[in-house]
Amino acid sequence: xxxxxxxxxxxxxxxxxxxxxxxxxxxxxxxxxxxxxxxxxxxxxxxxxxxxxxxxxxxxxxxxxxxxxxxxxxxxxxxxxxxxxxxxxxxxxxxxxxxxxxxxxxxxxxxxxxxxxxxxxxxxxxxxxxxxxxxxxxxxxxxxxxxxxxxxxxxxxxxxxxxxxxxxxxxxxxxxxxxxxxxxxxxxxxxxxxxxxxxxxxxxxxxxxxxxxxxxxxxxxxxxxxxxxxxxxxxxxxxxxxxxxxxxxxxxxxxxxxxxxxxxxxxxxxxxxxxxxxxxxxxxxxxxxxxxxxxxxxxxxxxxxxxxxxxxxxxxxxxxxxxxxxxxxxxxxxxxxxxxxxxxxxxxxxxxxxxxxxxxxxxxxxxxxxxxxxxxxxxxxxxxxxxx
Amino acid sequence: xxxxxxxxxxxxxxxxxxxxxxxxxxxxxxxxxxxxxxxxxxxxxxxxxxxxxxxxxxxxxxxxxxxxxxxxxxxxxxxxxxxxxxxxxxxxxxxxxxxxxxxxxxxxxxxxxxxxxxxxxxxxxxxxxxxxxxxxxxxxxxxxxxxxxxxxxxxxxxxxxxxxxxxxxxxxxxxxxxxxxxxxxxxxxxxxxxxxxxxxxxxxxxxxxxxxxxxxxxxxxxxxxxxxxxxxxxxxxxxxxxxxxxxxxxxxxxxxxxxxxxxxxxxxxxxxxxxxxxxxxxxxxxxxxxxxxxxxxxxxxxxxxxxxxxxxxxxxxxxxxxxxxxxxxxxxxxxxxxxxxxxxxxxxxxxxxxxxxxxxxxxxxxxxxxxxxxxxxxxxxxxxxxxxxxxxxxxxxxxxxxxxxxxxxxxxxxxxxxxxxxxxxxxxxxxxxxxxxxxxxxxxxxxxxxxxxxxxxxxxxxxxxxxxxxxxxxxxxxxxxxxxxxxxxxxxxxxxxxxxxxxxxxxxxxxxxxxxxxxxxxxxxxxxxxxxxxxxxxxxxxxxxxxxxxxxxxxxxxxxxxxxxxxxxxxxxxxxxxxxxxxxxxxxxxxxxxxxx
Lengths: 388, 597
What we know:
Chain A is an alpha/beta fold.
């Protein structure tokens, strides 16, 4: 098991000596295919949580034969416990813009969009102001690429890429059937590369510091570092950029309050790691992948309440389109309530776990599919807390 | 375009299908039926009910068969353990939020969810009942359609029907998560929104969430009331579809048996809407010619052309909402149903020595919008409600079954008289293009003294299921009084499904299209695909009904409306001439501009 020691990294927020427009200018001297090869070689995977190799995503989009292509920055950061993208957009927006520009150049898109979570609209004036300068900068260096802001309206589901496209198109934010995937048919039915905020900044930084430097961090399957949103029972809540590949144990030792009994990795849709598994669980794509949310719970916390909150959240935030997610979430929520009240026997939890597993394979999109992650892990590891 | 063949296996059986084929259709090729709920042949793919999930070997999750195109080397299992568990769970989930009081449901026996529950022998529900926790709201304010959300399974077929086929979007999805529902503008009742009452949503609702408002009991009461003379009229499209309610395949012509059955049900007189369809042709044809004369001879620039038909009440409600500025273009003729009602309580009453208030007019219609139409305040020319009750084809089927009539063994019989005589021109009103064809048969002959120049009177360009059809008929050799039409090429358009009607009207509005006469039917295929017709519906079924309609026309001795002897008689005895003062009082109407919201 290849692991790293917990190590703080300063890539995302570093601004010293960096002129994003200049970096774009020097990057676009390279052939797009070269950039793609570098991205693939870097091992960079999507930092939104799903972990799709960024280089491949760009390659697929580049390979599509279409005059119109788009690159979209997914800043609909709605996952409970995740607040890194807000910080990135607030502190280093030009690096996000530059990442978009590099991606746009690479895949052949002339337009880029940042889809900003509705609750982050307070950032809009500042971002728009900076965009004017950045777009002018692109013109100056001769890159036919402009970025516009788009605002969400508060639906969690619109962070799902195809629901995000629907929302951008002015429609109800409901996930689409896949295939076709966004790289083939995304925004307005055109090939679209959609990347998380953090991913774009890493892509930009790979251009800046070079592939080799980036690859010095992380493990074989989880290259580089990652911005973590640490919350819960911790004296050090906040944003921390750490090297990938550490164990949950190492994280807890650094950030816990000495009484951590569980860590919810990846927000409400992620899995819950109980204390007994801390040592054996790697934070990374080979272990437990994450969009960066780390919620630490100490022994004072009721895991029933934690799960109940998550299920309430999913019940409300499901788009309601597909049966497994719409009805399944309600059943899981009402099911644990019934068990708690003694109206259903504890063995009903097994029926609910089966339901969660069906949701995982039969729901239309990632939302419904991932509800099983917290449900099964919490119910399995904290069964007593659910029942009594 | 040549399509490549894609090779895959389904349940280990190899199959080759053209690329782009869905797994669902590929499985059909191998005689594997994959259950569906949200899928409907007439509509775009939704992939949201998930009942059709199948297992793809090597895939991380299950795949929706309706929404996934085949790919080379795919290995699909449609009935693996994983699939069965998921499918059964999904059915159970649907049932947990569905008001499963099946025995009291209007759709009992014709419900796709009920069939699936039966097929999978869903026993005691595993899951918690969610129906009881919600407030049950039934929208029964519309005279046409009842919407009961407690039965809705949120498949969105109705939403897709309303937007894709009809371009109306009266129904849409509101809210998210557990509050997600099918709703209207600000959740107002259907009767207060842009709903055209076409009932296409009713035709496609897999469960009982959208059904017609039934008046069967009221009709039974009228029949059983010895003081009421109950007259029934049957629309052209009913006779080629009623069989589907009574165990026949689609496309069976059952006019004679249907008339016998209606007599056995106890109606005092069994008459035909086709009679007033013929009458419509004379009224509407005359109106068209008058408009043309005013435009061409009198150079009257206020004449509204093109003129559109007015038989379809769904279309009327649509244009009132969507293109109110074009209401002067709509023929002032009432629909055949309403002409019939007005005449039944005047002309018929007079001839039979009955009082209008003692007559109850019942219509059997392929349509739900006709229920709304009969309720319009304008439709009281006789001084009473001209048409008392409107039943759909489905409701007639219900009555026949309730009365215990062995329909298949019935002898044929003829419509009663008066107002029971009709021609082939009236029968084809039931198919898209039929009114246009009937009108052209008569108008051409009135103007030239010769039959319309198409083989066997079959005006093929206006037939068929294409969304918008166009035809041009050059008028040559006019009779002296119509010489102003000499050499004119009458330009016609035929649209069915309101989304096509909207395209045609938009083209007219933008000046992109120039027609003299436009036929619009609100429903796909015309009345034969109406919202009151037997369920299910699809293109194949509609084509069969259309074929039956044209067969019926071809087999009739009289095929031109102006040759209908009873129509001639009513003009001589009662109305005077087409568009006469009396005609205007009884057979014509006006329209109401409405808003989109």
